[in-house]
Amino acid sequence: MTFSPELETKFAKMLQSYPPGRERSAVVPMLIYAQDETGYVTDELVEEVARRCGVTSLQVHEVVGYYSMLYRKPRGKYHVQVCTNISCLLVGGEELYHHAEKKLGIGNKQVTADGLFSLEEVECMGACSWAPAIEINYDFHHAVTPEKFDALIDALQKKHS
Amino acid sequence: MTTTAVETVTLTIDGKTIQSPKGTLLIEAARKAGIEIPAFCYYEGYSLQAACRMCLVEVEKAPKLQVGCTLPVAEGMIVHTDSPQVQKARKGTLEFLLTNHPLDCPVCDKGGECELQDMVFRYGAGESRFTEMKLHIDEQQWSPVVFYDAPRCILCYRCIRVCDEGMGVGALGLGNRGASAVILPNKVTGDNQHYLSCDECGACIDICPVGALTSGIYRYQTRPWEMNHVGTICTHCSNGCKTTLGVRNGRIIRGNNRDHSGINGEFLCIKGRYAFDFVEHPERLQSPLKRVGDRFEEIPWSEAIETVAARFSEVKAAGGKFGVIGSNRTTNEENYYLQKFARQGLGTSNIDHQRTGDLTTLLDALQGRGGALATVADVYHAKAVLIVGSDLSQQHPLLAFQARAGVRHHDTRVYTVTPGPVREDKYSARGVIAQPGGEIAALEGLREDLAKEPELVILFGDAIRGDAVRALVRFADSLSIPVKYVCLLDYANSRGAVDMGLTPDLGPGYHPVDRPGLTLDQMLKASDLDVLWIVGANPLRNRALAGENTFVVVQDLFLTETARRADIVLPAASAYEKNGTLTNVCGEVQRVTQAAKVMGTKPDLEIFGLIAREMKINVGIWQWQKMFEEIRKTVRGYNVPLPVVATGGAAQTNPVNGRVPSLIRPEEIRSAGDTLFTSGTTGRYSNVLNAVLESPGRLYSGK
Ligand code: SF4
Ligand code: SF4
Ligand code: SF4
Ligand code: FES
């Protein structure tokens, strides 16, 4: 399988950046970047990464199962992650997560019917100082209140209607 | 030879002062001193994992409990393996291991011989503080052989390591993490229909301390304590693995070697572990058959024996022509008896078997050398191993396992000269591809490396025969290093067949006979044979018999292509149904013990004896012990120590070297080319071998 020219360039560079014989070190970054293009980690992607890094597909599956940021199922166009770990929890993270469930009408790791949003309850994202925090795709949003959350979601929804 | 003195350290374990070589793992040092440190993930011979925390011990001056399975002993160390703190830690570890465990011991195959049960019984707490719902994961079937029940799994990684390191397959891995961690097979599918593509050896199942991995053959068959255990030898390939058969009500329901006895430790391939099912295949012959026109009629044993004996006597009296074809699977006693019957009883030298490797030329070429034949243990201990013309992992699974273990434990260097990719390529020092016939020339490419080795064990397949064997020995001589050989042969007693003189030119112990008889091919082509007696062989599978009027007697387990041509078919017992000895590919004699009995069959030795009695000729008493005694007394190289064999050990024979004036016809030597999933006739009637996805397998595909 082939990826976009930009990604191919990135991968070529990536494989060069480890000592010879350590190509397997590229398994995690390759999966992360590739999944942004393919949407999720498909069986085909696993085979491809295994081939490129010189490991067995089983070894790639071991990695995929270990890291929660690698997804084996399609996510929404916007993947909404709400932190309910200790710092966020103390300032309403859990309430925010339940609000998000209601707002989007889906539960943890589910996708809206139109495929626009998916939701995930996550552990610490390293944004404790600005709790409660959420992340939509690669964008962080700080000190999120239910109102702020609704505004963010409505704006994205509007963009696609 | 220089020996570096191993430094020893003195330490105290539970008040006992012990000395141990520096670097020894604490768990091993304690074991040697008779102190058990409980362990799940630690497994001798495989890499250290330190995953289960069952082996925690208290070491004075260390701030917290230490992991006994990875801690090397040190001078002055004071260890407590049973202090209140350690006891508490063990209880905690076991409580955790049982968090999601289903505790379905009453229906678990492992119940009664489960390491987790035993540990909890001995070290565990009586109750659990967990009140949470248990995490449930449905059981998965990964192949006809392997099932996985995740909730029972304690994540000790033993299965992963035995498959990767021991088998060289690497078909198992770890999926997910934390409480949802599970073992994964190598074919992971998006829809959770995972499956295995592997050797199907079942090593992972046997090494599993709990009932997480179970076998499709044994599961839900019995409670372990309801079986009798019969130690015997695998009847399939020539490697001669010891297997312990679990027998209940006369049926074999399990094969394993968990007691590590025998030359193979706990190694077995799929054939030794599971392919005993041919014994009760529905097509098994259970009555003598007589040809009537173009069909067979069942007849009683007495009539069958009388018919055969009458015909034999008649032909003998008339000075007619006999042909006898022996087996690669019958016992030494049977082979010896058969050749004696042919030579002395029938007065013929027309006796042969399907030769699968050129052992006779090797023995002749080794003139003047003693101890030049390697044992199964030598293949492990050798500093270097050279494999010529064999896909060892497919054709000689135990020998391949030995070489792999050598690589793992002491950096054995493996060299290969093969017609295609082999599994050994993954860890070999060097491999050369050479087409059959080109091996000897290709060896030159390895000369420089091989000459640097301190010693070498050479294993060679059937492509090396006749002059090529001599050329191989000359090549090895020119390296000027100590060399031992293994001439690779096909089946459980291929070696015993040659040793016992099932050849037209050599009697037992390679004694030349006065008037050499016909070879197997010559017998099949002879149109004037009066009688052809075929025991446990299927030469007519893909060849025809020229003699149209030849009276054919066949002894076998099934109605093979050969048996279909017979006038009388005598249903024989398999090696799992008889007593005697077999000689493996390395010339090691081992005892086979009867595990099952199939109604209507008889061991070949008894059949021979009954025919002899009916003919009123004296070939000897048809008791295996009597024959074995005769073999030990008269067959050169077989004067092996009786206690070794009697107690289930392997005794290496010491055959002639040199002066074997064999009239060998190299073109008649050919291996059947069995893979891991085939085994001649018995393999064709093993449901498990035919059921696995990988069957029938392929040589030289590098898997
Ligand atoms: S059956 Fe043998 S080859 Fe297959 S996964 Fe188990 S250990 Fe590995
Ligand atoms: S399946 Fe058995 S051997 Fe494998 S990790 Fe689980 S408990 Fe250990
Ligand atoms: S390696 Fe050979 S002797 Fe050993 S179990 Fe397999 S078939 Fe039987
Ligand atoms: S035996 Fe030491 S951690 Fe498992």
3D architecture notes:
The complex is a heterodimer of chains A (161) and B (703). Chain A has seven helices and four strands; from the N terminus they run ααααβααβββα. Chain A is of the alpha+beta class. Chain A has two domains: 5-66, Arc Repressor Mutant, subunit A, CATH 1.10.10.1590; 78-159, Glutaredoxin (3-Layer(aba) Sandwich). In chain A, helix 2 packs antiparallel against helix 3 (43-53) and helix 3 crosses helix 4. Chain A is elongated and about 50 Å long. The model of chain A has no long low-confidence stretch (mean pLDDT 95). In chain B, strands 15-14-25-24-23-16-17 form a seven-stranded mixed β-sheet. In chain B, strands 2-1-5-3-4 form a five-stranded mixed β-sheet, with helices on one face. Chain B is globular, with a radius of gyration of 28 Å. The two termini of chain B are 39 Å apart. Chains A and B meet through helix 4 of A and strand 8 of B. One iron/sulfur cluster binds next to helix 6 and helix 12 of chain B. FE2/S2 (inorganic) cluster (FES) binds at residues 39-42, 50-55, 67, 69 of chain B.
Summarize this, please?
The complex is a heterodimer of chains A (about 160) and B (about 700). In chain A, a hairpin with a 2-residue loop joins strand 3 and strand 4 (about 140). By secondary structure, chain A is an alpha+beta fold.
Structural class based on helices, strands and sheet pairing of chain A: alpha+beta
CATH arch. level architecture of the largest domain in chain A? 3-Layer(aba) Sandwich
Name the strands of the widest sheet of chain B in spatial order: 15-14-25-24-23-16-17
CA-atom Rg of chain B in angstroms: 28 Å
Whole-number mean pLDDT of chain A: 95
Quaternary form: heterodimer
CATH topology annotation of the largest domain in chain A? Glutaredoxin
Structural class of chain B: alpha/beta
Q: What's the number of extended β-strand segments of chain A?
A: 4
Q: State the helicity of chain A in percent bands.
A: 40-55%
Percent range for helical residues of chain B? 25-40%
Spans of at least 5 consecutive residues with low confidence of chain B: none
Stretches with pLDDT under 50, minimum 5 residues of chain A: none
Give the C-level CATH assignment of one domain in chain B.
Answer: Alpha Beta
CATH topology of one domain in chain B: Alpha-Beta Plaits
In the CATH hierarchy, what is the architecture of one domain in chain B at level 2?
Answer: 2-Layer Sandwich
Q: What amount of the residues of chain A lies in strands?
A: 5-15%
Number of domains of chain A: 2
